[in-house]
Amino acid sequence: MFFIKKTLTISRSYINQFIKLIKWPVAVVMLCVVPAALHAFHRYYVIRDQLNWHNLIYFAIGMAFFAAVRIFFIMRRGAAETMEHEMTHVLFALLTLHPVKSMEVADTGGGSMTFAGEGNWLIAIAPYFFPLTAFTMVFFAIAVRQIVGYSPDWIFICLGAAVCYNLFSFAEQTHPGQTDFKVAGYVFSICFLPGANCLTFGTIFAFVERGFNGVVFFYRLLFYYARQDITTILGYI
After folding, report:
1. What is residue 96's predicted lDDT score, i.e. its pLDDT?
2. pTM (2 decimals)?
3. How many CA atoms does the CB half-sphere of 207 hold within 13 Å?
4. 12-44 as b/e: b if 16+ CB within 10 A
């Protein structure tokens, strides 16, 4: 048991050092992602006649339905949003080998979680770019397709509702008073989050539109336009 704990502690330390080392390079990459993503989204508009509108329409129905429910019936953030927020912290803590000690969620919307180890910026900032509910629905959609052989229309409705839920949650949680931004660094958060959200939500949109092939196409567009932008910038230097 002592050997396992010692190995876990050493591994966690190396992971934290690596995450600390790549912090600003990742921020620079995310800054490059934003214009590339805008070009990619414009490309989707240009080829709009070729998109899988069947899936996208049901996805939009799910978003519209949840937005209507959220606006007219649930006017403030509650325990569900806080639970997801803290669970995202928990997920990234476990992924970086930080055992979780406790998690608390209050009915009024407040919450907290504690873990072993010093932590890292990825744990702190994870709930602001990783839509846990939406990605859970993506994995559920993959499982349903594997079982029944196709993706039912209600899957895309649920995906739309999940994405809309996460968008509302992100909008409410993202403000200068968040202590998580202080942990990660305000300047870093400003540099990192726009590009990171372009990646996560763009990935989900691409999956809805055409499954795994759509995701591959989306990232090919990103790499293509990012390479173009970098070449253009270097040309001015």
Report:
1. 93
2. 0.91
3. 21
4. beebbeebeeebeebbebbebbbebbebbeeeb
